[in-house]
Amino acid sequence: MLKGKWIRLQQNIATVCAVAMLASACGGSGGGGDRQPPTQPPAPPTTAELNAASRFAAQATFGMDYAGIESLARQDKATWISQQFNLPVSDHLSIALDIVQRRAAGEFDEFEDDIEYLIYARRLAWWHRTVTADDVLRQRVAFALSEIFVVSDNVDDLIVYPTALSGYYDTLLTHAFGNFRDLLRNVSLHPSMGIYLSHVNNRRSDPQNNIFPDENYAREVMQLFSIGLFELNIDGSLRLDNDGDPIPTYSNVDIREFAKIFTGLSFGGPGAFFGRQLPYFVAPMQMFDAQHEPGSKALLNDTVVPAGQTGMQDIDAAIDNLFNHPNVGPFIGKQLIQRLVTSNPSPAYIERVARAFNGDGGGVRGDMRAVIRAVLLDPESTAAPSNLADFGKLREPVVRYASILRQFGATSDDGFIANIGFFLQQVGKQHPLSAPSVFNFFLPTHSPAGEIASAGLVAPEFQITTSNSIVGISNIVDLVILADYVTDAPEPFAPVSLDYQEYIDIGTDVDMLLNRLDIVLTAGTLDAATRQAIENTVTGIDDINLRVRIAIYMILLSSDYAVRQ
To answer: DSSP E strands: which ranges in 76-115?
Structure first.
């Protein structure tokens, strides 16, 4: 069904005709002693095992090359996840700071505009880490979290300070494998969130001067970051009242009470004081009790925060109140499934993940490692695509682009994968940490009109998918694969190139070539008719390098690649 939607949006986009035009422009042992029976080498993974590993890699990472998929196919997926949990964090902030310091030392004089360069620094850091980091699962989960706990560089202070969003992303990386309570607390206290949702310098009430606590963060921490709008059953379905209506999780009164909680916070750092306007991003916001709302606060589920506590004690009580709400497991769990695995998980799948969040069976509530295992190792996520109806998700532009860079071994002469991502944002309407609002680029509940909506399904990524954006993504693939314009970072950053040699080595055998590409790019789901059309096109191309690139190009534009099953 998702593929059908994509195919209909591709109408009037003459892919095969474009390929013909583009092709013309590309040019395009022995030992002594007691002998032991020889050890038999392990059998190579079967095609089914390789496809299963590729599918798993597409869910858990930004993409793997064939060697990575082959290695993954030889090992237990739970073991691979545990190994990833134990890898150190590949942070973004150190990269951004290094770029800024090199500018200060006189490098990169080609950039006349210091502000432009500061904007570039955090984007350069994101792309380099995402494409090269070894902790691939952590990087992928952090990106999923960034689409739930949204901050964005459409705010001036967050776009011109590289430490703002690189540091915020590192917070997501640090707590991706920790406990959700710590994640929620650290997100709430991060200066970038304080700026974005305006609870930095949020002062106590002063009714005589018509000053009341800002309610922005109080609303969104409930609506988007923890419990959602309506009470849920553990399987993600709505709880209904006696009239059959959904039950709201909070009211305007609750928003006002939570707003009181998030008062008294300002930027920390040396010489900190309440009301400080100069942002300080390398430490959490600091509590100034003199500006914190005094008195008791009535929170959810009849919880009352007593008067007389410090501001930070109030915040911890509020975080506990949200963290222990029964909605959090199904609300956050479903979104993680949507971001990593499938747009329409079954209620049973959601329930299994929510129970992992709750710590059922002797676990710890909020253990993100348990949640991630539940998401990625669930029978629905690991089942063969043909066994599940309406399963899968549309690949979003950032994931498609990052996957190409990882799957085809992006390299550069200086070892730095320099990318700004501006052309991706222009044509794909997306760049990490650049969402137009706190609601991300697309809503988890978005259902495009037509067959998908009629079936009661959702397809969030289609909210930023139009005929124009499809053409734009096609142009990016053209630039990257056919024109060798892999990234858009200007000089003096070294150009980035992709490595097609392993495919060129087998490119004389079209069947072998397409088999390998089907494993790496589409996990064995390449449609027979699509494959035949590609085979018919590339068989007539004698230049093996060009043949390989055209084959890759056509698969990357196919619905079988666009919609991951």
So the answer is: none
The secondary structure of the chain in percent helix, strand, coil, rounded to multiples of 5, reads: 55, 5, 40
Closest CA to 549 of 25, 28, 20, 18: 28
Of 125, 186, 173, give the one whose Cα is nearest residue 153: 125
In degrees and rounded to multiples of 5, residue 446 shows phi and psi of -65, 130
Beta bridge partners of 564: 393
Give the contacts of 557 (CB within 8 A, at least 6 positions apart).
15, 474, 477
For CA atoms 467, 471, 472, 477, give the dihedral sign: positive
The total number of residues shown for the chain amounts to: 565
Q: Which residue shows structure tokens 């009037």?
A: 12
Instruction: Count Cα atoms within 13 angstroms, Cβ side, for 120.
Output: 23
Query: Cα(first)–Cα(last) distance of the chain, in Å?
Result: 11
Are the beta carbons of 65 and 408 closer than 8 angstroms?
yes
Q: What is the dihedral of CA 39, 42, 44, 46, to 10 degrees?
A: 130
Question: What per-residue confidence (pLDDT) applies to 5?
Answer: 64
What phi and psi values does residue 453 have, to the nearest 5 degrees?
-65, -40
Two tokens, residue 379: 């029978």
Crossing angle (nearest 10°) for helices 368-377 and 328-340? 50
Residues in CB range of 329: below 8 A, 6 or more apart: 234, 353, 354, 355, 356, 357, 358
Three-state SS for 175?
helix
Q: Rounded to whole angstroms, how far apart are CA atoms 268 and 159?
A: 20
Domain assignments of the chain as residue spans, ordered by start: 1-24+44-149+392-565, 207-323, 328-387
Assess contact for 404 and 436: CB atoms under 8 A. Answer: no
- In this structure, what token pair is assigned to residue 221? 């921490």
Question: Per residue in 49-88, pLDDT tens?
Answer: 999 999 999 999 999 999 999 999 999 999 999 999 999 9
Q: Is the confidence at residue 197, as pLDDT, over 90?
A: yes
Tokens linked to 14: 């003459």
Residue from 41, 132, 152 nearest 92 by CA: 132
| Sequence-ordered alpha helix ranges (H) in 27-75 | 47-60, 66-73
| pLDDT of 26 over the 70 cut | no
CA 35 to each of CA 40, 145, 263: distance values in angstroms, whole numbers, following the listed order: 15, 56, 77
Distance of CA 493 to the CA centre of its chain: 26
210 is written with which tokens?
A: 């018509």
Distance between CA atoms of residues 263 and 214, nearest Å: 8
- Distance of alpha carbon 471 from alpha carbon 476, whole angstroms: 9
